[in-house]
Amino acid sequence: MQSIIAPLVSHRICLAPPPIPRHRLLSHRPHSIRLPSHRSTTSLRLFFSCAAASRDSEMAATTNDVQDPRIPKIASSIRVIPDFPKPGIMFQDITTLLLDTEAFRDTIDMFVERYKGKDISVVAGVEARGFIFGPPIALAIGAKFVPMRKPKKLPGKVISEEYSLEYGTDKIEMHVGAVEPGERAIIIDDLIATGGTLAAAIRLLERVGVKIVECACVIELPELKGRERLGETPLFILVSSAA
């Protein structure tokens, strides 16, 4: 399939879909994403990255018609594993991206170029793969890295935010005092699927007075409509799964 360039349109609606378990995968729709061999660009639809943010975001793109030449390399380095961790799941495996030093560097560089000089003092990373991309971005833009973890993983006093799963709830936590009111933050994860964890991270940071500039992910699974759960917070992504 030939790669195409297509800007994503931000959805400014806060209606949450029925709770779905947050996995980094497509749930029981094996026909919705093509099965590539490793390093095949057919597995992901490519987007000019800056077009992925909402048009009225302070981070909005100045150019909408040119695809960054680094994106095909990033997309082709992401492996799709069928039927993992269970049948019907198409798992987006970023470990192959991490093995490709050029693609990994380009991924970090694209985020750094977007956020450097934007007065961002907090890079919040969502457990667990947000911990891979968040720290190098934070160091490069001169911000602190704040890990947002699952319950009972942080040793100090924490503040938490609950979010819904298909059969119950879960929480995301961060240390009390990790951020200050008035700070400007971006939230990093490797992938947005249903959007439940990112939405909880937004609520948690906003509760303590932090301004969320944007959420940023390497991959989006648009079939799961996760960006609709982010409300007014813009979303920036590099590649999107093919429909």
TrEMBL record:
Keywords recorded for this protein, A-Z: Cytoplasm, Glycosyltransferase, Purine salvage, Transferase
Subcellular localization, as worded in the UniProt entry: Cytoplasm
Xref: InterPro entries: Ade_phspho_trans, Adenine_PRTase, PRTase-like, PRTase_dom
Residue ranges occupied by any Phosphoribosyltransferase domain in the UniProt entry: 118-227
A GO cellular component annotation in the UniProt record: cytosol
GO MF annotation terms: adenine phosphoribosyltransferase activity
Broad class of the protein's primary localization: cytoplasm
Pathway: Purine metabolism; AMP biosynthesis via salvage pathway; AMP from adenine: step 1/1
The keyword RNA-binding is annotated on this UniProt entry: no
Gene Ontology annotations of biological process type: adenine salvage; purine ribonucleoside salvage
Signal peptide: none
Entry coiled-coil feature ranges: none
Enzyme Commission no: 2.4.2.7
Superkingdom field: Eukaryota
Catalytic activity: AMP + diphosphate = 5-phospho-alpha-D-ribose 1-diphosphate + adenine
HAMAP family: Aden_phosphoribosyltr (MF_00004)
Subunit comment: Homodimer.
Family to which this protein belongs: Belongs to the purine/pyrimidine phosphoribosyltransferase family.
Cited NCBIfam families: apt, PRK02304.1-3, PRK02304.1-5
Name of the protein described by the UniProt record: adenine phosphoribosyltransferase
Taxonomic placement: Eukaryota, Viridiplantae, Streptophyta, Embryophyta, Tracheophyta
